[in-house]
Write a structure and sequence with these properties.
Blueprint: E1 11-18, E2 24-33, E3 41-47, E4 49-50, E5 57-58, E6 77-79, E7 82-88, E8 94-95, E9 100-105, E10 112-119, E11 132-138, E12 144-153, E13 156-157, E14 162-170, E15 178-185, E16 201-202, E17 214-222, E18 230-231, E19 241-249, E20 259-262
Parallel strand pairs: 9-12, 12-20
Antiparallel strand pairs: 1-5, 1-10, 2-8, 2-9, 2-11, 3-7, 3-10, 4-6, 12-19, 13-18, 14-17, 15-16, 15-19
GO biological process, one term: peptide metabolic process
Binding site for Cu(2+): 40-41, 118, 185, 187, 240
Domain Copper type II ascorbate-dependent monooxygenase C-terminal: 189-272
Length: 288
């Protein structure tokens, strides 16, 4: 970030870099330059065009659409939105497997990289921040192209309950993808320990996913100590259920499908569809 001053709570800000248009680059690793006491989370987008031509802008996608007049407001990408990487809670650097890389530049729709940072608290007057990411890249062609598939749930969580937020999407492209890492993002109600790093972890099962297969994700939310309904939204008072699946293809290009969404509770649950290979009950219950 170019010495940003977060002047309000729940501030989302984006800044772009343009990729050399006549060259291909393969991103093979990510090294965060941020700490959780400053930045709530970071997202790296690959874009065909950025949200604006400004050096930085207000880019809270889920926040209210009206600008406060201090910064131009726009989404991270003007067109061609690809999630490449996500970071939160002091997650460690990520190195991709051998011969795997995110292709950007000349022969792809990704012509810009846009970094989004979410600051939950405004800074004191005069204090700025330059958090960001170091990218490890090469121009040596990688034989396996990487991508990220985002699964996200909407909906609302009633008070005093254990609620499942379920997502399911079907692969409708004649391609085989090989998952190698995953990341989950929730706020304070999620099952996972909220104090552990929100990083990409190796998958437990590397079975290839092919045409006709269904990918499903679930967030188990505990609102037993909350007296109000919790909506899906961008602030710490809201919740999120985002599952990022990082994968590669060993020939051709990654999926055209970049994300899939379900309405979430109370409108959608896994029981609405016929799914195989459902995890054990322990995976959907809270740790004791």
């Amino acid at each position: 970030m170019p010495n940003i001053h977060p002047y309000k709570d729940e501030f989302y800000v984006c800044t772009p870099i343009k990729i050399e248009s006549d060259k291909n680059f393969y991103i093979v690793g990510f090294e965060p330059n941020a700490t959780m006491n400053v930045a709530h989370h970071m997202l790296l987008f690959g874009c065909s065009t950025p949200g604006t031509d400004q050096e930085y802008w207000d880019c809270g996608e889920m926040a209210e659409s009206d600008s406060d007049g201090r910064l131009q407001k726009a989404t991270p990408c003007g067109s061609g939105n690809h999630v490449i990487y996500a970071w939160a809670r002091n997650a460690k650097p990520l190195k991709l497997p051998e011969d795997v890389g995110f292709l950007v530049g000349k022969d792809t729709p990704i012509k810009y990289l846009v970094l989004q940072i979410h600051y939950t608290k405004k800074f004191p007057e005069g204090q700025t921040d330059s958090s960001g990411l170091f990218l490890l890249y090469t121009q040596r062609p990688q034989s396996k192209l990487a991508a990220v598939l985002l699964l996200a749930a909407g909906g609302r969580i009633p008070p005093k309950t254990i609620t499942h937020m379920d997502i399911e999407c079907k692969i409708n492209e004649n391609k085989v993808i090989y998952p190698f890492a995953y990341r989950i993002h929730t706020h304070s109600l999620g099952k996972r320990d909220p104090l552990t790093p929100e990083m990409f972890y190796p998958v437990f099962d590397t079975t290839p996913i092919k045409y006709g297969d269904k990918i499903a994700a679930r967030c188990t939310m505990d609102s037993s100590s909350r007296n109000r309904v919790t909506e899906v939204g961008p602030t710490n008072n809201d919740e999120m259920c985002n599952f990022y699946l990082m994968y590669y293809v060993d020939h051709g290009t990654p999926l055209e499908m970049l994300s899939c969404y379900d309405m979430g509770p109370p409108n959608y649950f896994w029981e609405n569809d016929q799914l195989n290979n459902i995890p054990s009950a322990e995976a959907s219950s809270l740790y004791k």
